[in-house]
């Protein structure tokens, strides 16, 4: 079912948590919502689920308008068939694990035995079948989170909202469940919205990524698009691009940094209003001194398993982050290095995007 | 505590009965020529106060103590509760040597007997003792306790609902079919006074009368007060009633009238005695003296009791005149009766009224 | 605060090596619970012990004549004719009136705690107000309203030419009045529990397809289960033992109940106190079993709603049901408060209690407000009002504190004594007040402390008698708050006592205020127990009013006094109500 | 302060959550506890903090024995000076944000104004200074988590236990706070124990990593050690090594897989009891068909920003995961590929470790 959100606003008392948000999620599409803590992700989801009364805007699911501020129409949440995994789990402490999971099925008038069977299946999927009869409050954090997930999965809703559903799980479990979720979502053609802070998760699950900042969507696109060309410096920063520098002056293919006596070459001419340049740490090449590029000193060197993260202070310039493959030629702290940045990897960006992305980008 | 300036004190001074003509305190306390206390006792009593525990009606006790205060100038403090609770408390306090009361008044001869056995009552002879001894059932165990007065039990009606010809006059009138479903009675097991009534009815009119009364389908109550209230509102129109409390309600404005049937009224005891604590209390002694004096007994009569002291001039209770204690019309349920017949009486009554409990 | 040592969830069946005697002695754990158990047992078990002794001894074991000649003959009371029918009647009344009270209380509690019903403060008051009316006054007022011949309602309908008779002297009437006047217990307990609800849990039901009704049924009410079961237990036993309402409404309708039966036993001459005690002991056993059962049911699950992940106060929007539901609350107000009070006021101002038609009131002189003035001028009334307020405030405060300590020990610690503590605290619930009053009398007479005859003894007695109410009130809120919150304060350097004071107590504010309020009102109303303990120096209001009603003749005065009494209770309830309203926000 | 845990056991009712755990955390050391959901991490921390009564064992902090089952000694929590960030936040809903953070300071008898100032400082650090006066319930999930973190940071305990303190924060904030935490920990010489499911976080924060499985510690070592040589196949799996295959027969430097007709060459001779071979996805090289190595078909190909994740089904063999740098030569789904695994990157491991690591490994 397609979910269309138009100009949605929500305020808590005087505080505006969502401000004129527009978003369309295509039928069967999986959107990942990425955004800073407190930017309004949970609030948006709660509006879609019908748990908050928005202060403005319109939401429709499929062909039904479920909320319209204009007409005052508001469909109660239990009629929306929207599943949600709560950030706070909201597992019912007075029920057992399996009772928790059976609830949505029972609400759909599934017979007790059938519901139980189905619930056990889902529990097996999340690895909790052995705890089915345990009281739901007698679980570890991660187990509770899985109960919450299982409950929503058992429901088979037409729209599924997942608010950091895997945040308290270990990497392996998370990966398994992520794959499982994607599988179910694609198989059933489930329209879903997913909040996560894990980029891996975002990239693996998203058909499109929506970047949310200060209560509205500021960029919307496929993972590759968002990753490759963030719409603003702040989005770039958010996407893990740690090297973002303010631009002082730009002339043709050359930009001068504002705070440092350093200029960089870009592949394309810097557009008007360009305010920052950014480069991904993976695109920064660090070699032992003497090679081409800017000279500097390694200040931090962190081993990260398959890669090494450096911070190199360029002579008379900024400190640059770099991620290089781990290998025999690694540099130690204090060593001199030379840093190279390819012009094509340099992104020239405005500081912020003020208008929401054009809605014609939206997939049907 | 005490009743202070309660409305009772006004009523006690004038409305119920005018104050005695002479109260002389020049040499002890002498009221209308009868000596209540000598000089020394009075002096001590004025510094003291009476602590009275009573199981009789609150309103009549309020009136009595207000009158006592007015006539003697001695302070008095009342603790009132239903007889069975009172008995429990008195026995317990006595057992623990903490009995605060100087005088204890109860409405059940069996309870009084028990008090006497346990030593709650100690012998005391008021100045009128010799007079009192002349009557039957007035002095017990050589003065260990006394009958203060008798409660009379008869019937009455709602004067707003029943008038003229309809007014019942004799006990037999209660069997009139027009009262079917409109009668009220308190069940015979609810206390000494109602057991006495049942015994009187059985004795005077036979079992047949009682079963016919039962067949009238009267409303059965657990307590007198609730019944009185129902009668005042007209919920029931005729009921068997305690004379004193009903008269009190009538004076207070309730549309009630009492009947003093010629074919007899039932009487039960109001007993009192001095306690060990009262032995040391001059005020307590004065209270007993006063209660048994002519003045005290008259006041009781004016409230709707039958005086225990023999040989008094009849005192009317408002428009009514109760028979004296020694008349044929007055049927007493004596302590011996109570001991021997209570259970069987209650049982027959219960059968007649199809009452369980 | 005693030094209660807290440890979460007990690993009791854990494969422990058998603890050696020495080891146990070194453990500080649970020591704090011993003095507490001692205090509670002293307050409750000594009087109850007397009752037990009375049940099985030949003579009534009052001071001065305590002996241990035991006998089982008093058990014969159970085969007395009428007991069975009275018991069945009492059960029917008890069960249906309890359901009614839970329904009313639950509805009002939910409406005020969780919805946007109009004038919530006022609706809260509606839920509370019947507490201001002692049940015997309420019953009398209702007998004036609904008696078939002279009831005001029936007179009114006759005036209007409606051919319908309300008969309050019926099973229906008894159940209605009992249910209405006991609903506030359920209301207060459930209100505090529901205001601790975590809306996320309810929301989860909504998004998973549960309609509002299903949400209530499977989340909201089950989570309030400790409060519901607790109040059901309280309400049921109270109704089961209630004498005045039975006396005023059931007896005239020839409906026998167990309390009237016990009353007759006590009132028989000679008094059959032993047999009444036997019945009390049986009731104690039943209540203890029920308490145990309740504990079992609740122990298997968790009812924590206040957690450290935030608590977003959210009220359910009633939509177009707002006003209809408000109207239902108003109907309750009308039946439980307005009509009875109006009847009382009418009685107080009417010069003649007899009335055929409302037009009688238009007659000159039919109405006189003097009775109010007379009451307010009476020393007795003023003295007893003063005493009542002092006794009620002190005993409610002490009772709340004690209940909190017990509740905390029982539900938050692993103290060995906690089962015993809860059991003992529930005992007074089971013993009919009239019998317990005797036990208390004996206890405080034999105690070698000069308390008998003072206000203090009334306070102590009230604390003991109201222990079950206090404990249930506190327990349900304790069970709603997550222990992690308090533990966290301890971790951050607070002593346990400090953590309780700055975290647990504020979180339970609503529950504590409700408990205090309930105990305050109960102490103002308590009648039977003080009847054994008051003296002329320690007159209290409930007794003064009871005396007035017992007088028969002083009905007008009694009614006026009751109305003023209600007003005093209303004023007195202001502070705890202030504390108890509002949500969880800082 | 050194924390020594000896033979610690904890049971909930009949369920044993911790089973004879031994662990020593050196003074000023930061240990990261890694383990599956439900393995007993939170329980262990609660024991150290004094919130659970262990059913056996001994815990000492510095020179003080805070718990000893033998003697029955148990120091109450508030005397242990152990800080803890709860997995469930345990933010006090009836206090404001700043009151929450001030609490531990007030408990240390710091004056109100000083406490407030200090609390505001910590709040600034976690980026919540602007919400100081907000009720703690009126926050987003991530904001609440930061309040919990700030509260424990303000306390300056001698031992700090952090139970997934950053799980609900966005990547950037998480990185900032991770750095901040490490900074404070090192500067103050704070002994700390950290639970996380984020490997990056584990590697960045840990002096040593403790692997917990089924209620006990099964491996303890520096991040490099644990990463380079996991003690068992299950630990390897847990550390993100997705390619773990059961071994059928081993002869010299050659191991035969149990379930597939495939043999692999190892750098060292397979030891006795060897049950599995493992290879990290990063060590699997995937090339277009025709090169050396095993031939297979690309089944899944997931773009992961700077890298690409493949699943290649080897002809007649298992499916192998591989992570390769993203670049122009990427393979698409369905393409034929050839997979190469260097003998030195092959780990030969037992299935499980049963005994805890030797305690002499422990740093002082
Ligand atoms: N109150 C309880 N009663 C019974 N079992 C419990 C209780 N609390 C936790 N458990 C069980 O104890 C085990 C360990 O729980 P713990 O909370 O320590 O896990 P954890 O390692 O922190 O897991 P997670 O990463 O999911 O938070 C779990 O299997 C859990 O089911
Ligand atoms: N009940 C409330 N009252 C006032 N403000 C609130 C309330 N709930 C949330 N907020 C504010 O609204 C904003 C959006 O909250 P929301 O929960 O939607 O954030 P979020 O994007 O989900 O953040 P996170 O990633 O931390 O969960 C936050 O700044 C929060 O402080
Ligand atoms: Mg959120
Ligand atoms: Mg955990």
TrEMBL record, chains A, D:
Q: What is its EC number?
A: 7.6.2.9
A Pfam family name for this chain? ABC_tran
What EC class is this? Answer: translocase
Protein name as annotated: ABC-type quaternary amine transporter
InterPro entries cross-referenced by the UniProt entry: AAA+_ATPase, ABC_SmlMolc_Importer, ABC_transporter-like_ATP-bd, ABC_transporter-like_CS, ABC_transpr_FbpC, Mo/tungstate-bd_C_term_dom, P-loop_NTPase, Transp-assoc_OB_typ2
Q: Which GO terms describe its molecular function?
A: ABC-type ferric iron transporter activity; ABC-type quaternary ammonium compound transporting activity; ATP binding; ATP hydrolysis activity
Q: Which UniProt keywords apply?
A: ATP-binding, Cell membrane, Ion transport, Iron, Iron transport, Membrane, Nucleotide-binding, Transport
- Kindly list the GO CC terms recorded for this protein: ATP-binding cassette (ABC) transporter complex
**Per the UniProt entry, what species is this protein from, by scientific name?**
Prauserella cavernicola
Where does the ABC transporter domain start and stop, copy by copy? 3-239
Question: What SUPFAM superfamilies does the entry give?
Answer: MOP-like, P-loop containing nucleoside triphosphate hydrolases
> PANTHER family from the entry?
SPERMIDINE/PUTRESCINE IMPORT ATP-BINDING PROTEIN POTA, SPERMIDINE_PUTRESCINE IMPORT ATP-BINDING PROTEIN POTA
UniProtKB/TrEMBL annotation, chain C:
> Which keywords, in A-to-Z order, does the entry hold?
Cell inner membrane, Cell membrane, Membrane, Transmembrane, Transmembrane helix, Transport
Coiled coil feature spans: none
Q: Where mainly located?
A: membrane
Stretch forming the signal peptide: none
- Residue ranges of domain ABC transmembrane type-1 in the record: 87-294, 385-576
Question: Which Pfam family, giving just one, matches this sequence?
Answer: BPD_transp_1
InterPro entries attached here? MetI-like (IPR000515), MetI-like_sf (IPR035906)
User: What is one GO cellular-component annotation here?
Assistant: plasma membrane
Where is the region Disordered? 1-27
Question: Which PROSITE patterns does the UniProt entry name for this protein?
Answer: ABC_TM1
The UniProt similarity line reads: Belongs to the binding-protein-dependent transport system permease family.
Q: Which PANTHER family match?
A: INNER MEMBRANE ABC TRANSPORTER PERMEASE PROTEIN YDCV (PTHR43357)
Name of this chain's protein = Iron ABC transporter permease
Source organism (scientific name): Prauserella cavernicola
